[in-house]
Amino acid sequence: MSITLFHHPFTRAATGVWMLEEIGQPYTIEHVDVMRGEHKQPRFMGKNPMGKLPILQDGDVVVSETSAIGMYLADRYAAGTLAPALDDPRRGRYLRACVVGASVIEPAAMAKGAKWEYQASNAGFGTFEDMIAMVHELIGEGPFILGEQFTMADVIFGATVRYMTSFKMMEADAIVTFYLERINARPANARAEAINAKIIADKGLGG
User: Fold this and answer.
1) Does the CA dihedral 130-173-89-54 come out positive or negative?
2) For residues 30 and 6, is the Cβ–Cβ distance under 8 A?
3) Residue 207 has pLDDT above 80, yes or no
4) SS3 of residue 207 by DSSP
5) HSE-up of residue 164 (Cα within 13 Å, Cβ side)
6) pLDDT single digits (tens) 65-84
7) Which letter does DSSP use for residue 19 in this model?
8) What domains does the chain contain, in order, with CATH numbers?
C-alpha cells in the first residue's frame, strides 16, 4: 500500500505532513493547485465532496478531514504509541483532544472574532471562555495531553491551537505558550516545516 497526501502548504494539509513525519511511513506528496481551483475538480470532489484539503489516500482507503486523517494514521501505523490502545482508559481523553479543534476551538474563536449572536447553550462549541478553559484542561500539567506520552492528539490539537494563536484568534498565554514550545520542538514537526517551506519556495508561493 502507498500513502499519498494531496497537499497545498497554505491549507491544513501542512499539518498532514507533520502527521506523516511522526508515523515514519514512506509517503508521497501530490501538490494541488488551490489557487487555480484544482481542488474543486471532479477528481478531488470525488474524494472529498467538501472540495477541501487535506486528502489522504492509503491504497484503497481515502480519508479527508484533518482530525480523521490523524486518527486513521495513528491507529493504522502507530497503535500503542501515537494512539492509545483500544482498551487503554486514556483513549477517551485522546479522542476528545483529537476532535475539539474543529468542533469547539475553531468555531468558538470565530464566533468571538466575528461577534456572532447565538445562544451558547444551543451551540456545541459553547462560549469562548468555556473553550479556553477546556484548552487549559487538556494541556494540563503536561508535558503532553496524555502526560509523558506524545500522541497524534498533540499534533491535531496542537496544530489548531498554534494556528489560532498565530492569527490572534486566541491568546498565547503562559500555559498555551509552554505547550506550543514543547510540540514545536518535535523533530518530526521541524522536518514537516522544512518540507512545507521547500514546496512554497519550489512552487513560487511565497510572494
Assistant:
1) positive
2) yes
3) no
4) coil
5) 30
6) 999 999 999 999 999 999 99
7) H
8) 3-80+189-202 (3.40.30.10), 91-187 (1.20.1050.10)
